[in-house]
Write a structure and sequence with these properties.
The complex is a heterotrimer of chains A (442), B (416) and C (474). With 416 residues, chain B is mainly alpha-helical. Chain B has helices spanning 2-25, 34-40, 48-61, 67-73, 77-88, 113-125, 128-140, 162-202, 205-210, 213-255, 267-270, 279-290, 293-298, 301-314, 323-331, 345-354, 372-408; strands at residues 341-343, 369-371, 411-412. Chain B is globular and about 70 Å long. Chain C is α/β, with parallel strands linked by helices and 474 residues long. Chains in contact: A-B, A-C, B-C. Chain C: Residues 54-276 form the Tubulin/FtsZ GTPase domain.
């Protein structure tokens, strides 16, 4: 069962390329045939000459990044992008979401749809679509939101997962908060789940865990790709009876994002270290899971910054709503374990009802996938995809800044010029406040 | 007129043939030839035996009659069939002609093959055919996934507070996702089936023999499956004609009864016949109690029972199983104060002219009879009306729900 | 790749433009050693094979044949343009790109805007269209003109509205040279105020440059070069100091000043022309820096303005470059951005500078820079890997800052002084189509613009509470 990826804008194309690279090297490295076959079928199709071609469509409004991405993949020698599965224009959206959503999106949707359809028809079976983009710029976010909406119309029954890269807090684009608000509000209606990576967090992982001195965008994207890969590579679900799960997107969405108000997913992976140190490190499942669990409840995305003071709330505390509490309530969690002795790993500590909201029991809220195959050279690794309050703070910050700007009506004329009115902004603001309120109630 | 009649009869022949093909594809043995069916319409003949066998086969295969019952009745078809038909809620005179006739099953039990044909019609209308097809498909299709066990424990009276509402929303979402996963699985299966089918076409027979026995077996299954589905499809396309013909059989039966020996029994009287714990009876009695009093007063139970047959003939294509529930509620509608009996006009007229009867179901002039076309019209109207009522009810429910949600959930304030 | 077209109007506009083309050629010659017509070159130049009759341009990737500037030159006297035609740059233009008259506008905005604007409208639009047709994907018009004279301010602003009419999709960035307070043109306050209204209404971005600020900078450079301190000898082959190495040899009095403006244009387009790890398209400038449509005056500052000949400069110099960009001395108008209010700020860096350097300096400078309450993180950055000729790195800061206000107020004062006496007014009102209401409208337009800046300034230093958010009732 296959996933068709749509890479949108500069960021989406760069992250997408890294993802395929990680998946390809992981699939080809392992000797277990079932695993690599399942992985390859998921993300690649084979030409008559046996070449692996990514099931991906590349979309950008300027040619530079796409040309670069295609070149780099061809150079890898292991896999490449389809010769004709990309689309670019000459001039970007100039960081303007409205330009992407109202002008470029509608203008080029048929071409993009045709490209996507071709990839879909190449699949024996479609598990779903994954759209990758950033929320800051104009192309990824604006065109991306439009294309997602359009694909939802064309493929009403398929799963659509959006992978979003949140920009750094400052310095990239001045109107990034506006663009983010509009993107999130629109995607929330049409996407099945929204998986988020924050640049700031990933940047810290690069500097503190991976000890990279001069961090480039490639480093950041590689970390994102590693985490995404550990989610999307084949794994065994609890009731799959030894067969790799057939529908990764469906299973992911079905176990984490069933409620229409809660669609934001965050990821944490353990362990992450410089590749030179992996060979000298040993891990134990209880140790990894203990750390991962504390990362979850204290909402730290990095092993190094775990706050061990945070504890599960007692029964009496649960009745009060503790907004100031640093405890991170989950709605649903999906734990993915990969590596040696995976079947001996004890995951009971994630089934504590106190971890979850009062209205969803751990049986419904918690799922485990396992795979005995070593992922990306880590002897044992655990990834937690979580639908929790973890993204509440960044979302609230972003919304607050955008709202402050909106209160002065700054930059609005740039959006009005292309057909996004103040009312559209207000709609998006209200909607996201609603989302924040929902998460606050967990 | 002659020509068209001939055309109709040819068509009927084909339709019955497709039914026969269907029945044997489902896995039934000793299916009577199409011509047998046609002769059965006129009652007499040696076909009776074949029909007893067919009916008992169907009842057994569909699991209406359990294994124990089979053992209890021994090899006796008639009892078994009568009991089985009871289970499905069918009633006819011949079933009660003589009760408790343990050993013989001789001449007293004899009834015309036409009545058995009617019983067969009832069974088909009840959806037995679909049951058989799905059973057969399950048997043949080895790639079919067993349905996931879904935990469906709901509190009997759901409380609408915000957290159970959220839970409910979660569950609904979860179901929706599962549905999509299943749909995509089905799509894949179709793909694979198609591929297998193409492969079987392109390979010469000889190459099959080289492959393993398991594969061969699978292939046979797959072919059986294809045949089955094909024949079912064929049947579905022509089913309408069959029901028209069945209607004519019914009319024929009403106007020209082969075995009319005794006055109709009341149901209460005959209830002794049935075996303990009969669901069909319960169902029937429920229905009867809901009948309008006026009709009860007229004591037209029998007519009602026949009504069901007639109405089913009309409803051929649609979901017949829901009809018995629908009928009582129909009769309570103001616009439709009375239960009418439908007749198929053309054939009825022919029959009438040839042989008027004084039976309880009388002439076409009686106020409670309607020509079939008109009845169809009325039923369609009724259906539209009911659909409309359902929609308004749904809408009202949704509005109410939304109101509750908005009260429960949250109001949005416009900023200062 | 997108292309830009330069439209230079009037004496000043053409002189600056001339320096720009000279430096642009020099910069590309420096970077492009293979003689291949590449994407970067195509953004400002066409490659024409003269052997072909159709005059069509060659595609990207071929050998450089004849480079032709994507430019339209307009002047209502012949002097400057004739000089160009006889000078070393004559190869870069062909006759179809020029539009001249003989009599000049007599320092009268109305003559330039009304008389010539109407008379030459068809011809100008035709030339603009022809130039645009040569572009694969036209992204931006750069208009260069002065505010004081007649042709630059009058006809220049008329051309601006033609651009808006004919090419509404294409971004319009205007470089306007503002007159000194002691300008020898008596009517320059009239011309400036009338032109200001046009700029406020029809431009996407305006880069205001004051003659006085340029004079000040040039004096400072001269002072540096003559003070004779060891190790502080100024390199003469940098783009700012001279045209040496370029096509024209002779140094003219205003060349240094014009070089600074030409450099500004080179730097602003560098990220669109050359590669870098963080690109900035031209249409991103207005998108990020213009929060309100009329407040599109972006104060430019360039650093470094000169490079000391001594190569063993301390590594501190990179951070110094960032500090300089916010100092009074490096602004191209006389203003002090640090003591006014920032609405938004873009840093366009060229040369060997890393993201980490950029982030470090933003963090370092941020506390000393007042930003408007709703845009505390109003930074837009770009990194271009190709440095300007003669430098290892450079920085262009574009600030949307309320410090432009004093310049506008000064203009208004000089205007009022003149207008109260009705001095020279009849020269304007004689012109066909000109009415007194133009003056009153122009001045009220300027008033309201100044008021808008006042309004924002008033919020400075005050702790602005966050706007109350939506509350979701339960």
């Amino acid at each position: 069962m296959s996933v068709v990826t749509v890479q949108l804008g500069q960021c989406g194309n760069q992250v997408g390329h890294e993802l395929f690279d990680v998946i390809c090297s992981d699939a080809l490295e392992d000797q277990r045939k079932g695993y690599s076959t399942a992985s390859c079928e998921r993300f690649f199709h084979q030409t008559a000459h046996g070449e692996l071609v990514a099931r991906a469509v590349l979309v950008d409004m300027e040619p530079k990044v796409i040309n670069q991405t295609i070149c780099r993949s061809a150079k890898s020698g292991r896999w490449r992008y389809g010769e004709t599965s990309h689309f670019s224009q000459k001039q970007g959206c100039g960081n303007n979401w409205a330009h992407g959503f109202c002008v470029h999106g509608p203008r080029h949707r048929d071409v993009v749809e045709e490209l996507v359809r071709r990839e879909v028809e190449r699949c024996d079976r479609l598990a779903g679509l994954m759209a990758m983009m950033s929320v800051a710029g104009g192309t990824g976010s604006g065109v991306g939101a439009y294309i997602t909406r359009y694909l939802r119309d064309v493929y009403p029954k398929s799963f659509i997962l959006n992978h979003l890269t949140w920009p750094y807090g400052t310095g990239e684009v001045i109107v990034q908060n506006y663009n983010s608000v509009l993107t999130l509000a629109h995607l929330y209606h049409h996407s099945d789940a929204i998986l988020v990576h924050e640049n700031d967090t990933v940047h810290r992982i690069c500097s503190q865990l991976l000890n990279i001195k001069h961090i480039s965008f490639t480093d950041v994207n590689r970390v994102i790709a590693h985490q995404l890969g550990s989610i999307l590579q084949p794994a065994l679900t609890t009731d799959s009876n030894g067969i790799y799960s057939r529908n990764p997107l469906g299973e992911l969405v079905g176990s984490l994002a069933c409620h229409p108000e809660y669609k934001l997913l965050s990821v944490s992976t353990i362990p992450q270290m410089p590749s030179s140190s992996i060979a000298y490190s040993t891990f134990s499942w209880p140790g990894l899971l203990k750390h991962l669990r504390q990362m979850l409840i204290s909402n730290s995305k990095m092993e190094e910054c775990i706050d061990w003071q945070v504890q599960l709330p007692s029964a009496s505390e649960r009745t009060r709503t503790l907004l100031g509490s640093s405890f991170n309530t989950s709605l649903a969690n999906l734990l993915i374990l990969r590596g040696k002795d995976v079947y001996s790993a004890e995951t009971g500590s994630f089934e504590d009802p106190a971890l979850y909201s009062s209205w969803l029991s751990p049986e419904e809220a918690f799922n485990v996938w396992k795979s005995p195959v070593i992922f990306n050279k880590y002897e044992k690794s655990a990834t937690l995809v979580s639908n929790s309050k973890a993204l509440l703070r960044p979302l609230d910050n972003m919304l607050g800044k955008a709202w402050n700007m909106f209160a002065s009506r700054a930059y609005i004329h740039q959006y009005v010029k292309f057909g996004i009115s103040e009312e559209d902004f207000l709609d998006s603001f209200t909607f996201l406040e609603q989302v924040i309120s929902s998460y606050n109630q967990l | 007129m002659q020509q068209s009649k001939a055309a109709v009869s040819v068509e009927v022949k084909q339709v019955i043939a497709s039914l026969c093909k269907m029945l044997s594809a489902v896995g039934l043995e000793e299916v009577p030839a199409p011509e047998t069916f046609r002769r059965a319409k006129f009652g007499a003949g040696p076909e009776e035996d074949q029909f007893w066998k067919l009916l008992s086969n169907i009842l057994q295969t569909a699991g209406i009659v359990s294994c124990e019952a089979q053992a209890q009745f021994g090899g006796e078809h008639c009892k078994l069939v009568a009991a089985g038909l009871w289970q499905t809620g069918y009633y006819a005179d011949w079933m009660f002609i003589k009760e408790g006739g343990g050993g013989g099953g001789g001449e007293e039990r004899r009834c015309s093959s036409r009545e058995l044909l009617l019983a067969l019609g009832w069974l088909i209308a009840e959806g037995t055919l679909e049951k058989l097809v799905s059973q057969r498909v399950k048997k043949l299709d080895r790639t079919l996934f067993t349905p996931m066990p879904v935990n469906s424990q709901f509190p009997t009276r759901p409380q609408i507070d915000s957290s159970s509402l959220r839970k409910l929303q979660w569950l609904v979402g979860s179901l929706r996702h599962q549905n999509r996963i299943l749909l995509s699985m089905q799509e894949e299966r179709t793909h694979l089936l198609h591929a297998v089918f193409l492969a079987s076409l392109s390979y010469p027979e000889s190459s099959f023999e080289q492959t393993s026995a398991v594969l061969k077996e699978d292939c046979v299954c797959m072919r059986g499956l294809c045949e089955l589905l094909e024949s079912y499809l064929n049947w579905k396309q022509v089913e309408k004609v069959f029901w028209t013909w069945m209607g004519s059989v019914l009319d024929c039966h009403l106007t020209d009864p082969v075995v009319v020996e005794k006055a109709p029994h009341t149901l209460r009287g005959s209830a002794k016949v049935c075996h303990h714990g009969n669901r069909g009876l319960e169902k029937m009695e429920n229905m009867l109690q809901r009948l309008p009093t006026r009709q009860k007063g007229q004591g037209r139970y029998r007519a009602f029972a026949e009504d069901r047959g007639g109405a089913e003939a009309l409803q051929a294509g649609s979901d017949t199983s829901s009809l018995p529930h629908l009928l009582p509620s129909l009769s309570t509608l103001h616009t439709f104060p009375q239960v009418y009996r439908a007749r198929l006009q053309t054939i009825v007229l022919v029959k009438h002219s040839s042989r008027p009867t004084d039976g309880p179901c009388g002439g076409a002039e009686t106020t409670d009879e309607l020509p079939a076309s008109q009845a169809t019209q009325l039923l369609l109207q009724m259906e539209a009306l009911l659909l409309q009522r359902r929609d308004t009810q749904r809408l009202a429910n949704r509005m109410q729900m939304q109101e509750v949600v908005s009260r429960q959930e949250d109001l949005v304030l416009i900023p200062p | 790749m997108t292309q830009s077209v330069v439209v230079q109007v009037g004496q000043c506009g053409n002189q600056v433009g001339c320096r720009f083309w000279d430096l642009a050629l020099r910069e590309h010659a420096h970077v492009n050693k293979k003689g291949v017509y590449d994407e970067a070159l195509s953004s400002f130049f066409r490659n024409v094979d003269l052997r072909r009759n159709d005059g069509g341009s060659c595609g990207v990737g071929g050998k450089i044949e004849n480079l032709k500037a994507r430019a339209v030159l307009v002047d209502m006297e012949e002097g400057v343009v004739n000089e160009i035609l006889q000078g070393p740059l004559r190869e870069v233009f062909d006759s179809t790109q020029f539009l001249t008259d003989v009599s000049g506008s007599g320092n009268n905005w109305a003559v330039g805007h009304m008389t010539y604007g109407s008379a030459y409208r068809e011809q100008i639009v035709d030339k603009l269209r022809k130039t645009a047709e040569h572009c694969d994907c036209l992204q931006c018009f750069f208009l260069i003109h002065s505010m004081g004279g007649g042709t630059g301010s009058g006809l220049g602003t008329r051309v601006l509205s033609m651009l808006e009419e004919e090419f509404p999709e294409v971004c319009r960035i205007v470089t306007s040279i503002y007159p000194s307070a002691e300008d020898d043109v008596i009517t320059s306050p009239y011309n400036s105020i009338l032109a200001m209204k046009e700029l406020t209404e029809h431009a996407d971005c305006v880069l205001p440059i004051e003659n006085q600020a340029l004079v000040h900078i040039v004096n400072k450079i001269k002072h540096m070069s003559h003070c004779g301190k060891p190790g502080s000898v100024i390199k003469t082959d940098t783009t700012v100091m001279s045209g040496q190495g370029g096509l024209s040899r002779a140094e003219k009095p205003f060349d240094t000043m014009n070089n600074i403006v030409a450099n500004l244009l080179l730097n602003i387009t560098s990220s669109a022309r050359f590669e870098g790890s963080l690109n900035m398209d031209l249409n991103e400038i207005a998108m990020n820096l213009v929060p309100f449509p009329r407040m599109h005056y972006l104060v430019p500052s360039l650093t470094p303005l000169y490079t000391l000949a001594d190569v063993s400069v301390p590594p501190r110099r990179l951070d110094q470059m960032f500090s300089d960009a916010f100092s009074k001395d490096h602004q191209l108008i006389r203003a002090d951005p640090k003591h006014s209010l920032y609405l938004a700020c873009a840093l366009m860096v060229r040369g060997n500078v890393q993201v980490s350097d950029l982030r470090r300096n933003i963090e370092r400078l941020k506390p000393s820079l007042p930003f408007v309450s709703w845009n505390q993180e109003g930074w837009k950055t770009s990194l271009c890997s190709v440095p300007p000729v003669g430098h290892s790195h450079s920085l262009l800061a574009l600030a949307n800052n309320t410090c432009v206000k004093p310049t506008f107020i000064g203009l208004r004062e000089r205007f009022t002084k003149l207008y109260r006496k009705k001095a020279h007014l009849h020269h304007y009102l004689h012109v066909d189509g000109m009415e007194q209401s133009y003056f009153t409208e122009a001045v009220s337009c300027l008033n309201s613009l100044i008021e808008e800046y006042d309004h924002l300034d008033a919020t400075k230093g005050r702790l602005m509470p966050d706007a109350p958010r939506f509350s979701i009732a339960r």
